[in-house]
Design a protein that fits this description.
15-stranded parallel beta sheet; 3 helices; 14-stranded mixed beta sheet; mainly beta; elongated
């Protein structure tokens, strides 16, 4: 499991670095001055210029925006044009911003490359690549790759998410998530339906899909989850599905149809030991079960970055720095790499 995640991590990390190179290339090609935002049509002809440090409207016919600094869009990132009969057409739009990008909504076909943070208030579709963190109070329905942390309300079945650090999805997680750090979700509505792979720990209210991580902890599971834990798997309810844990598995009981592989089980008093299980078994008295926690391995050092997983703290940190020039403030790699023939991908 670990080698597979490491390979994906390195490939995705390199892809982010390669994509972010386009920001400086565009700025240099079109001579965009510091603090300036340039709006281009589909033929790369200038429509207008704006102040990158102000809230801007997208002019009609815009196909690309190049910002030498942050970019704050008033409303949605979209390009609506008209055909010869006056019918409205939603066309693709690309954004290249050296610092942060803030907008209300993105549309299918849109592409955002940002050297720092990206903050999308509502639903996210299209493709987004960020040199630092991504934050949304909406649902991710597109492809998002970031070198920092990612925080969102939910993700759809069409989503593909990668973050070099921690991922927090408050509600339901569908689609695919790969996290270089920990993955966590809401303690009440945080349900994993899709596929989550983390180099750190995974915590969720319920797991119905496929999950891998260091320690995997959940309140409950569906009938057919696939769970791989490099260390421990813990649930306070019955263990269902397929669970592989190199440390231990903890659950009230092991369902007769469950397929388990672990050196040790912790089950509640009154539960049956699974047939043909040859590992160790510890039976926990019923009165102790509610507060029981199995022995834990040494915690993995947390990745540096934002000080909190909470979306409110992340948003506060993001807005504090959104208007700053592109510079290293100690959180991942906020600036796009300078033009080079050699990739700056992190080697793990």
């Amino acid at each position: 499991m670990a080698s597979s995640i490491d390979n994906i991590f390195q490939e995705k990390s390199k892809a982010i670095d390669d994509a972010l190179l386009q920001i400086n290339e565009k700025i240099e090609k079109f001579g965009v001055k510091h603090g300036q935002a340039l709006f281009l049509d589909k033929d790369n002809k200038e429509i207008s210029k704006g102040d990158a440090f102000s809230e801007l409207n997208i002019p009609k016919g815009t196909a690309a925006i190049i910002a030498n600094g942050p970019l704050t869009i008033k409303g949605d990132i979209k390009n609506i044009s008209e055909d010869k009969d006056g019918n409205k057409i939603l066309e693709n739009i690309s954004v290249f911003a050296k610092a942060s990008v803030t907008a209300n909504y993105t549309f299918s076909g849109s592409q955002i490359l940002a050297g720092q943070d990206v903050d999308i208030k509502q639903t996210v579709v299209g493709e987004i690549t960020a040199g630092r963190n991504f934050i949304s109070k909406g649902t991710i329905s597109g492809n998002v790759s970031v070198k920092g942390r990612l925080i969102a309300d939910a993700s759809s079945a069409d989503s593909n998410i990668f973050a070099e650090k921690d991922v927090t999805i408050v509600g339901s997680t569908r689609g695919k998530v790969t996290a270089g750090g920990n993955f966590s979700s809401g303690i009440i509505s945080g349900i994993i339906y899709g596929e989550v792979a983390a180099q750190g720990n995974v915590t969720a209210d319920k797991i119905y899909g496929k999950v891998s991580g260091d320690n995997v902890t959940t309140n409950d599971t569906g009938l057919n989850p696939e769970i791989n834990a490099e260390k421990n798997f813990i649930t306070k309810n019955v263990v269902y599905g397929s669970v592989n844990a190199k440390g231990s598995i903890t659950g009230i009981a092991i369902h007769p149809t469950a397929k388990i592989d672990t050196p040790h089980l912790y089950i509640r008093e009154g539960s049956k030991k699974p047939e043909n299980f040859e590992g160790g078994v510890t039976v926990v008295p019923k009165k102790q079960w509610k507060d029981f926690t199995p022995p834990q391995p040494e915690p993995k050092p947390e990745n540096p970055g934002l000080l909190s997983h909470e979306a409110t703290e992340a948003l506060r940190s993001f807005r504090k720095n959104a208007g700053s020039e592109c510079k290293d403030i100690g959180d991942s790699a906020p600036c796009p790499p300078t033009h080079s023939t050699t990739s700056t991908a992190i080697q793990r």
